[in-house]
Amino acid sequence: MLIGVPKEIKDHEYRVGITPAGVRALTDAGHEVLVETRAGERIGFSDELYLAAGARIADSASEAYACPLIVKVKEPQSGEIPLLREGQVLFTYLHLAADPTLTRLLLESRIVAIAYETVSDAAGALPLLTPMSEVAGRISIQAGATALQLANGGRGVLLGGVPGVVPGKVLILGGGTVGTHAAMMALGLGADVTLMDISLPRLRYLDEVFGTRLKTRYSDAYALEELAREADLLVGSVLLPGKRAPKLISRALVKQMQPGSVLVDVAIDQGGCAETSRPTTHSSPTYIEEGVVHYCVANMPAACARSATQALTNATLPYVLAIADKGWKVALKADAGLRKGLNLHLGQVTHAGLASDLELPCISPDIALE
Ligand SMILES: NC(=O)C1=CN([C@@H]2O[C@H](COP(=O)(O)OP(=O)(O)OC[C@H]3O[C@@H](n4cnc5c(N)ncnc54)[C@H](O)[C@@H]3O)[C@@H](O)[C@H]2O)C=CC1
Ligand SMILES: CC(=O)C(=O)O
Ligand SMILES: [Mg+2]
């Protein structure tokens, strides 16, 4: 199969859909990969490296988009949508529940859209969201620590404290992949860390893994209000797969947070978990609202795009190989988890959570694949 890998054009998005190592695996399996010129230039994956791995280089985006299977990183931007063709398979992050306009445009383009973030595995985990959640969770503490500095609008708290001075308080809302990796980094810095989740089994697991260094608290409105008021850094990392993030942090609660405290809303790609959150970019990552510094970058892993691209291809490659080897219909029929990634099929929504959030009609993936 011919696989197109376009250069990403979202603000400061330097990740690439497939690494040279991934290209090598695909071409060894008999597939052709067409990588847009300079797609990996900023992260040390030159056209020469891709050529040496067996790729062909496309001179333009339209050439890369002329392939039956497109593997990329971020949701199509406005300049990319006209390049999509009916019946083409698009395999990428989409986050459609947070973006009704993009959903409508992709429905009109009549593509087959498989979203990384809703592909599941046998255990119900999200194997293609996980690697980027690991990266974003770790970055969330670095970004939060930077935003806490006075020059950036923060309240001038050093998360680790110093001898004789108590550490900063970090509150993590959602203890899945992002939350766990945020906790790891914050504890590593020596911060005072509390993590909240509605899953008691998850809290038990994290308590076992981190021991007494991590405080856990069951997530309800009462506890959130109490802890948010005293947090220096609040990381929003909740997820209801495929759905808009629940707005757990009201504007009234943000108002009660300490002036200069920081909210890193990692869940912004699903719409954000605070009423005051709106997407920002790496060019202009923060804004202050109700006295709180908000960092709401929707493609955080792009900050460490080289590591992130490697982590992403490690996870996506087996799925790309399955789609390319078997054809997308057979691959989706054979793998119930991959089928959960099917969000749109030739003008119809095929993901129940997405359909209910956007109040659109839905057909089941099984019917779409008949
Ligand atoms: N901004 C960015 O660049 C990136 C954003 N993300 C986003 O981060 C979010 C979290 O992703 P993951 O950690 O992989 O998800 P996950 O599914 O591993 O974890 C989510 C956790 O939220 C918990 N949760 C649900 N409702 C809750 C509530 N009311 N209170 C407390 N906890 C609650 C769940 O029990 C679960 O443990 C997602 O929206 C994901 O798309 C991930 C990577 C990059
Ligand atoms: C998950 C996601 O949105 C990202 O890695 O950019
Ligand atoms: Mg305030």
UniProtKB/TrEMBL annotation:
The active site is at H95, D269. GO terms for biological process: L-alanine catabolic process. Keywords: NAD, Nucleotide-binding, Oxidoreductase. GO terms for cellular component: plasma membrane. The keyword Protease does not apply. One of its GO terms (molecular function) is alanine dehydrogenase activity. It is an enzyme of class 1 (oxidoreductase). Its EC number is 1.4.1.1. NAD(+) binds at residues 133, 197, 202, 219, 238-239, 266-269, 278, 297-300. Residues 148-296 form the Alanine dehydrogenase/pyridine nucleotide transhydrogenase NAD(H)-binding domain. InterPro entries: Ala_DH, Ala_DH/PNT_CS2, AlaDH/PNT_N, AlaDH/PNT_NAD(H)-bd, NAD(P)-bd_dom_sf. Substrate binds at R15, K74. Coiled coil: none annotated. Residues 4-136 form the Alanine dehydrogenase/pyridine nucleotide transhydrogenase N-terminal domain. It catalyses: L-alanine + NAD(+) + H2O = pyruvate + NH4(+) + NADH + H(+). Belongs to the AlaDH/PNT family. This is Alanine dehydrogenase. It comes from Sulfuricella denitrificans (strain DSM 22764 / NBRC 105220 / skB26).
